[in-house]
Write a structure and sequence with these properties.
The chain is mostly helical. It is built from 17 helices and one strand. The radius of gyration is 28 Å and the shape is globular. The two termini are about 40 Å apart.
């Protein structure tokens, strides 16, 4: 109880908000049932969820075959459910081929090599992305300079005297990751140089940058890969066997660098001119101004656009099948269409590949949003 004190205000204790305006009920009332149109759309969405999610869960989990064996397990699961169900038995049996390609699928005793490379790569990524880890500069330098040689030495095997895994027999998720990571890492510096060249006051550099960017942006990736497969070997002697994986890496890197350059160029145009003028007033030269004033701000602005191109690149790696390479999607399709599994694992193969793509692209998008929040220095009302 509050006693009345003469000459002073008496404040009542704060009360919680009405249930109808707070919590789940309040959120639903505001976001789902705020108008007749929203009510209609909510009911339609709930109906679609009811018609799709429970059947998918039943197909993928409840009625699916999970044991390790042959196609008989999948056929028995289909017969028990009275319809087609997910055949995760196929994924368990063919996991080595789907993840590591034909060579490591047939030489399972050598799988430790790509697994070791993946572990080191994951450790590097975790080290660089975790806050307050020491020696990030040294780890980044190792990852850019030494890790590619380390990865190739173990994946190929010739340099270390291991059983040789020809790059033509690389495939699956391993090949997808190799192409995507190489394209992303190599395209970023090239894209930065092309973006700066396009903004340059020197006519020659500007013209060369514009031609480079517009040429690669104007050609579909399928065409670029065909060019890489047919034209690149013409620049080498006939006795030189120009590797198909190397052709794909070069083609995708050049293609991706053009889109990265345009993303950065847009950010450079968005910067206030006062930033460059202030740097000029301080007496900074072109490279000091660019490296310490202009580029950091431009890269921060262009993070969403750059990450979007990286996500597209990760998904576009599936196009390398036109030059005879079996990436994750094509390796899944090839194993599902084998005589042993044909007819019981087709959909499961595509769902499994889609889940892997979804996990990695979602992780890239989530990190992009987190990085944007950390680097956001604008004052918001």
């Amino acid at each position: 109880m509050f006693k009345t004190v003469p000459g002073k205000f008496n404040f009542l204790p704060a009360r919680s908000a009405p249930t109808a305006n707070s919590g789940i009920i309040g959120w639903a009332k505001t976001n789902l049932f705020s108008s007749p149109l929203n009510v209609l759309l909510t009911l339609i969405g709930m109906y679609l969820i009811y018609k799709t999610i429970p059947p998918f869960i039943s197909w993928a989990i409840i009625d699916a075959s999970w044991g390790y064996g042959d196609r008989t397990l999948c056929e028995q699961a289909n017969e028990a459910a009275g319809r087609s169900t997910a055949c995760w038995t196929y994924v368990r049996v063919r996991a080595e081929q789907i993840l590591f390609g034909p060579f490591y699928g047939q030489n399972t005793d050598e799988i430790w090599r790509p697994i070791l490379v993946f572990i080191v790569f994951a450790a590097i990524i975790a080290w660089l992305l975790t806050e307050r880890t020491p020696f990030k500069g040294y780890v980044a330098a190792f990852s850019l300079i030494f890790f590619p040689f380390f990865a190739f030495a173990f994946l190929h095997g010739e340099w270390l005297g291991l059983k040789i895994a020809p790059t033509g027999q690389w495939g699956g998720f391993m090949l997808t990751l190799v192409i995507a990571v190489t394209g992303i890492v190599a395209a970023l510096p090239i894209g930065i140089l092309m973006a700066l060249g396009r903004q340059s006051d020197l006519p020659v550099f500007k013209a060369l940058s514009v031609i480079f960017i517009e040429f690669w942006r104007g050609a579909p990736l399928v065409t670029v890969l065909f060019m890489a497969s047919v034209i690149f070997p013409l620049f080498f002697p006939a006795e030189v066997d120009f590797d198909k994986v190397a052709r794909a890496l070069i083609a995708i890197t050049l293609f991706q660098s053009a889109y990265t350059a345009e993303a950065i160029r847009g950010a450079l145009d968005a910067l206030p001119k006062g930033q460059g003028e202030a740097a000029d007033a301080l007496g900074l030269g072109y490279w000091h101004k660019t490296l310490f004033i202009i580029l950091p701000q431009a890269l921060k602005i262009s993070i969403p656009a750059i990450v979007n191109t990286f996500i597209e690149l990760f998904k576009d790696t599936s196009l390398v099948y036109i030059i005879g390479l079996l990436d994750l999607l094509q390796m899944s399709r090839a194993t599902a269409n084998s005589l042993e599994w044909r007819g019981v694992s087709d959909i499961t193969a595509f769902v499994f590949a889609a889940l892997i793509f979804f996990m990695f692209t979602s992780a890239m998008a989530a990190y992009s949003r987190n990085l944007e929040r950390k680097l956001d220095t604008e004052h918001k009302n």
